[in-house]
Amino acid sequence: MKRLRACLGAATGVMLTAAGTTALVAGHASGATTALDNRWYAAAPYLMPLDNDPPDPAAIMDDTGLKAFQLAFVLAPNGGGCSPTWGGTAPVSSDTAVQSVINTIRAKGGDVSISVGGYGGTKLGQTCSDAAATAAAYQQVITKYGLHAIDFDLEEPEYENTAAIRNEIGAAKILQQNNPGLYVSVTTAGTADGTGWFGKQMLLEAKSQGFTPNNFSIMPFDGGFNGAASQTSALTNFNAVLQSTFGWDQATAYAHEGFSGMNGRSDSGEIFTQADFQTVLDYATAHNMDRFTFWSLNRDRQCSPVDNGGRTSGTCSSVAQNSWDFAKYSVKFAGATPPSTTPTPPPPPTGCKTTWSSSAVYTAGDEVSYNRHNWKAKWWTQNEVPTASDWGVWQDEGAC
Fold it and tell me: In this model, does residue 270 exceed pLDDT 80?
């Protein structure tokens, strides 16, 4: 099924969905930084740094407490070849724009993971000759940005290509071996029974290569889903798939399982509200799942004018919300408490008289405070709100 997010991978500028450095490269990587706890990489929501009206990550961090971002997507060049680009058009080797975004995030104590693949576009696993060449291309990304985490988003049309998936899984295994401590997630399509035939074939490829990432995540949307109950059911079924594929017990399977949702209106018109996210978050934490993320921060804001779910957008959610409502569920999954959205009340006034009361009786000369001003009664009064008027009962004595 075509997803609006699919356009993302092709870097058309109107796109929707989506998925250290390690000690080996930290010494010479550009912009290398101290790794965050893995829970933050597991909670990192997707952000398109070059398309879909990118929001300011620093503002999101200030408003939500979020520390990690999943930057999307690295692809093969649109014209072919085995070198990494952003969206098929901007070579990673000469990039300064995404590096600037990463620098901003790291300057505030955060970090990024980078997602490779996505829906649509040409993937490096399709164009590189083998797993080693694919890994070498991705290593350029890890080294360039000093990464501690990477996400393999393996879905249409790539995951229908057996050779391409063999290259991607083989590359992921090589990167995991060559970059000790690298957090690796693998994201694929979700279905009611967990994942479809191609997703199951991808898991079998990982098993045959002896590759175990930090998690396998499914995207339970754009497949006839209807709210959180259908998503948690798919996660339960996917857990059974992981058990049967790898011979894991239930707890081990959950410890290697992840959720990647879509906030608001999905490409196929499904609606996922803040309440749905809370329900799935409760499920993920109760079952000790390894990952909870969503597509995308570019969409984590209310449409203007309010859309009420009538369309799917790459830059807003099409549901009623405050900006970054959905990011706060990622913050909770990481184990942090988002800042309160309740406005901070103004400091109490100084030099003010006793606050005016509608039930009190005042006589000439009595003084009260109201609306940060002091007032003096001209004559007897009760239940007359202090206002500035030449003929009124109250005389304004100025701000307090």
Answer: yes
